[in-house]
């Protein structure tokens, strides 16, 4: 799939621009603060209806404007889809082929995007919430039903926490009975999320470990592990998993009431990345962490292709020049001719010559993009 054209109106520092885009590598070159990342963010918005760098949509609206609009035409293998995201003080609207989609889960997936930005190193170096966010977003784009299950789980979690808070120091009989009912809903929703995440990680690991071994020329083995917050075995089938979670909740009940918090469940689960059997977050060098992040992103591209039957669009925001020649070559060789790619850089010299020769180059200057 590829973005054939895009129009941005009052989005960040863009006034009103329209671009025709080729299904190749597109390099956006420009000095700092010219709008390179803003364009990447707009394409990310098309896929996820969410920015990769802020949760506050109003920051995306051009200063002194009432609304912002992103419109694009995306070519898919046997069809084409028009997408539109409109942001205003009233909220966000998303449209697919001109029809407003009330549920984001019905919109997401119309176009698939993999983004690799410097912050992605936090996937390896950062806290568990970064990895949970990564897993949730990536499963969401290949399986919108997952987003529905996840938000159901989050809704029940909120209710459960509220109930637990009111149960301290002495729970009433009524509260205890309500907790029993909520626990069953909580377990059912949690099991769905855990199983989906576990399955996703296994598939992702298949690709990521192969890619990682190739990049490190056989020196390193990458493993991804689902590391649950409860004493459960994520690989078990649903009823056994539910049983384990039920036992775990019973064991932790007193503590949960004392703290007014749910202490076991997907919201606290972790994904571990091991290189040669050691946690790369704790023991990995900068280079190993960078390679692990790159392997994950490259694996994601393959995983999406295996699900949707087409390669996603790749956004490389300010990372290509950060990769040494060896890692750059691995990435570029894997995508060349197959994946529509957007690369931003302040210095065109940092990108391999052969890539530039075959790429379309745009210059970003003060909210304008000019094809070279
Ligand atoms: N809501 C907004 N309205 C107008 N301009 C904005 C808005 N939000 C950010 N900007 C401007 O957009 C510019 C930043 O653009 P962007 O982040 O795309 O830079 P960049 O070209 O990627 O730079 P760098 O190379 O430093 O990453 C800044 O000048 C910033 O002031």
What's a concise summary of this model?
The chain has 372 residues and is an alpha/beta fold. The chain is 45% helix and 23% strand.
State the total count of DSSP E strands. 15
Kindly estimate the percentage of residues that lie in beta strands according to DSSP. 15-25%
What is the straight-line distance between the termini? Answer: 24 Å
Count of all domains = 2
The major beta sheet can be summarized as: 6 strands, antiparallel
Nearest-angstrom radius of gyration? 22 Å
Residue-averaged pLDDT: 95
Q: What is the level 1 CATH name of the largest domain?
A: Mainly Alpha
What letter string, H or E per element, gives the SSE order? EEEHEEEEHEHHHHEHEEHHEHEHEE
Number of helices: 11
| CATH fold category name of the largest domain | Glutathione S-transferase Yfyf (Class Pi), Chain A, domain 2
Outline the low-pLDDT stretches.
none
Q: What does this protein look like?
A:
The longest helix is centred in the middle third of the chain and has 43 residues, at 173-215. Helix 6 crosses helix 7 and helix 6 crosses helix 9 (286-308). The chain folds into two domains: 1-112 and 311-371, 3-Layer(aba) Sandwich (Rossmann fold), CATH 3.40.50; 121-309, Up-down Bundle (Glutathione S-transferase Yfyf (Class Pi), Chain A, domain 2), CATH 1.20.1050.90. The chain has helices at 36-48, 104-107, 122-125, 128-142, 144-166, 173-215, 238-259, 280-283, 286-308, 325-335, 353-358; strands spanning 2-11, 14-20, 25-29, 67-75, 80-88, 91-96, 99-100, 113-116, 222-227, 270-275, 278-279, 313-317, 341-345, 360-365, 368-371. The mean pLDDT is 95. The strands form three sheets. Strands 2-1-4-5-6-7 form a six-stranded antiparallel β-sheet, covered by helices on one side. Strands 8-12-13-3-14-15 form a six-stranded mixed β-sheet, with helices on both faces. It has a three-stranded antiparallel β-sheet with strand order 9-10-11. With 372 residues, it is of the alpha/beta class. The protein is 45% helix and 23% strand. The structure holds adenosine-5'-triphosphate. Adenosine-5'-triphosphate (ATP) binds next to helix 1. Keywords: ATP-binding, Cytoplasm, DNA damage, DNA repair, DNA replication, DNA-binding, Nucleotide-binding, SOS response. This is DNA replication and repair protein RecF. It comes from Marinococcus luteus. ATP binds at residues 30-37. It holds the Pfam family SMC_N.
